[in-house]
Amino acid sequence: MKLKIIVFCLLLAGTACSGIKEDMSECYNTHKLILSYLGDGSTEIFSEKIDRVELYVFDAQNRCVADFEVPAGDVAARTTKLPPLQPGNYRIVALGNPYSTEVDKLEARDFNTIRFAAADYLTKATASGNDPLYHAAANITIEPFTGKNTEQTTTVRFASSHYDLAVDVLGFPELENNARATSQTELKICGVTPCTDFTNRVCGEACDYTLETTYDAQHLVLSNRSNIMRHTDHENVDVCLSVGGTEIAKVNLAEFLRQHPAIDCSKHEVLIPIEIRFIEGEVVITIPEWAIDVIQPDFGNKTEI
């Protein structure tokens, strides 16, 4: 989606005045935003995790009065400025990494109805996952211009809007005997919540994602790496493997998480690694060996602003 700054009567496209003028109707204070993401620690890791930001400004009546993509240079510097705003109270919402993500119902300009989701989901196409999304919100007050420019500063802190998902399938006879059978193999995650609203809460009717996979012919491993929204109802979410429309393995996410309590879905950075291994006709579901040391990453203990 190509975003534009949308200007209403309460948002004037002027620049802040310098000095004292008799008519100060077009004079505005400036407001600087510092973009921050600490993850699950106290070290600033914004630049490691987020490289694109879209920003939305809502007035006191919850109407969206401006939306725009933050310039890449500002994202890299973790600092940007708001457009001129009339005095009043505003809510700022920012989305991190919305590449294949669409903001739905933006035309309504209503904070309570706007949501974001995978573009494929919104266009009724087959969705295969989400971007590694992040969300931030902050309340600000623009003070009246009194004859001298002042600059206010607000730190906007991001939170995660996604889970990382990794699925490996090993020892599957069809993959071992005929690599071309991978074209008939389908890996899905069913019952996921596809949308998130502007308070960073998941929403929308549960749906299925058909996951994109790669095949390592040397090691006979079928793999998926993707992201899903931070849904809360794990009981109704299943990862399913099928061949030619016949289901041959299924993992219930809630049961899997109970069996592997090291995966803490309350954290910001969450990896859900699932291994489906076929051993002598039996299906064994576990955590891949490679993931054991990474499901609880160390984010350090230093704070930066």
Q: Mind explaining what this structure looks like?
A:
- With 305 residues, the chain is mainly beta.
- The protein has two domains: 30-97 and 132-160, Immunoglobulin-like, CATH 2.60.40; 163-291, Sandwich (Immunoglobulin-like).
- 9% of the residues lie in helices and 40% in strands.
- The chain has five helices and 20 strands.
- The protein has helices at residues 46-49, 72-77, 119-122, 173-177, 253-259; strands spanning 30-36, 53-58, 64-69, 79-81, 88-96, 101-104, 115-118, 134-142, 151-160, 162-170, 185-192, 195-197, 202-203, 207-210, 214-216, 221-229, 238-243, 246-252, 271-279, 282-286.
- A seven-stranded mixed β-sheet has the order 3-2-5-8-9-1-4.
- The two termini are 31 Å apart.
